[in-house]
Design brief:
This protein is α/β, with parallel strands linked by helices. It has two domains: 99 residues, Response regulator (Rossmann fold, 3-Layer(aba) Sandwich); 182 residues, Response regulator (Rossmann fold), CATH 3.40.50. It has twelve helices and 13 strands. The strands form two sheets. The protein has a seven-stranded mixed β-sheet with strand order 7-8-6-9-10-11-13, with helices on both faces. The protein has a six-stranded parallel β-sheet with strand order 2-1-3-4-5-12, sandwiched between helices. Strand 1, helix 2 and strand 2 form a beta-alpha-beta unit. Helix 3 packs parallel to helix 4 and helix 6 packs across helix 7. The longest helix has 23 residues.
């Protein structure tokens, strides 16, 4: 009898332990352990960032994964704390759009040491980060595609007198975007190889840095001013007004590194009654820009590069799925993963509209 009571006590203890273990492991409906992932976003100050966050969350939940979303409010200290909290939760994957490249590296490496796969989206980390990959659109090739599309629209002979609206001084993505745009225009007008066009674009950039103006006379391409609009519609309006006022008599082209600045500066063109100035953007694919491309209303928005947060988010989660579900090793992925480049024009806008934001 004593032996039986002892066996019952042992059995009861084992049952309690089993229940505790079961309670710590969340299960899916099919009985498998639920995968938990985390998203750390730099901020939600633009429709792009919000759409990127929403896409990653939705695609993760389609796989049955539980998703924890943390915003960093453009604070690198909070960003590191967010990553550490996800490490404590023992998530399988962290998706992060980092604020600055270098401060985030130690936190990424702490996650990797804990066996957590880190996938960067939109913004790449600094040197030494033990991440899987960074997923973003191809800035240079998007700009090049837009430049080519514009030359296809306007032809190779008409002299172009343009302004360029840039996001922020020293920003790598901005440099890539405008360089691609210049290379696309000059390359298409002079029938250059990609390498030759890139060299010509680099020369334009050197001139802009030195004087704020630039030209490639052979391509009949003249930049009469550059302004810094902080990537925003308000900034684009302000800098657009200054550049338009200074160059009103000759201007026939307005270029920008994103749609938001162009959308603001377009209002400045309307206010100045400059309705025959063409508008192109090296990126983003904002639906407001797509609507203008489709309508053909003056001043005409001719083309924008597709920087789709939807496509970036889908691709990032697919990489995570291959790691978590298929068991692919971290080293199976390139450090940079780019979405396909498109210079979206009126004949393409319907097909790309739902990937905008």
């Amino acid at each position: 009898m004593k032996k039986m009571r002892k066996r019952f006590r042992v059995l009861a203890v084992l049952m309690v332990l089993a229940a505790l273990v079961s309670g710590c492991q969340k299960k899916n409906d099919d009985g498998s352990k639920q995968v938990e992932v985390g998203i750390v976003m730099k901020n939600y100050n633009s429709p792009y960032f919000q759409m990127l966050n929403d896409t990653i969350k939705a695609e993760s939940e389609k796989l049955g994964w539980k998703c924890t979303v943390l915003g960093s409010d453009s604070d690198v200290t909070k960003e590191a704390a967010n990553i550490d909290s996800l490490i404590q939760k023992k998530v399988k994957v962290i998706f992060i759009d980092s604020i600055e490249p270098n401060p985030v590296v130690p936190a990424i490496n702490r996650a990797a040491e804990a066996g957590i796969a880190v996938i960067n989206v939109d913004s790449a980390p600094g040197v030494g980060a033990n991440d899987i990959t960074t997923v973003y659109s191809d800035n240079i090739e998007n700009g090049r595609a837009v430049g080519k599309a514009y030359v296809n629209y306007i032809g190779a002979d008409k002299p172009l007198y343009g302004i360029i609206l840039s996001g922020g001084k020293g920003n790598v993505a901005g440099l890539e975007r405008r360089s691609g745009l210049f290379a696309g225009i000059i390359g298409a007008r002079l029938n250059l190889s990609p390498g030759e066009a890139d060299d010509a674009a680099a020369d334009i950039e050197r001139q802009l840095v030195a004087t704020g103006r630039a030209e490639n006379a052979a391509a009949r391409f003249f930049i009469v001013g550059q302004g810094w609009g902080d990537w925003s519609r308000t900034g684009g309006l302000q800098v657009g007004e200054d550049l338009i006022t200074a160059n009103k008599g000759m201007l026939n082209l307005m270029m920008a590194e994103n749609d938001e600045m162009n959308l603001g500066a377009r209002q400045a063109l309307v206010n100045a009654d400059l309705l025959d100035v063409d508008i192109i953007a090296a990126a983003d694919g904002a639906k407001a820009a797509y609507d203008l491309i489709k309508s053909g209303d003056k001043p005409r928005y001719i083309s924008t590069g597709e920087n789709s947060p939807v496509k970036v988010g889908i691709k990032a989660v697919e990489i995570a799925r291959q790691i978590v579900v298929d068991g692919k090793p971290w080293t199976a992925f390139d450090k940079i993963t780019k979405t396909d480049a498109f210079g979206v024009t009126a004949d393409m806008v319907t097909a790309h509209y739902d990937y905008g934001f």
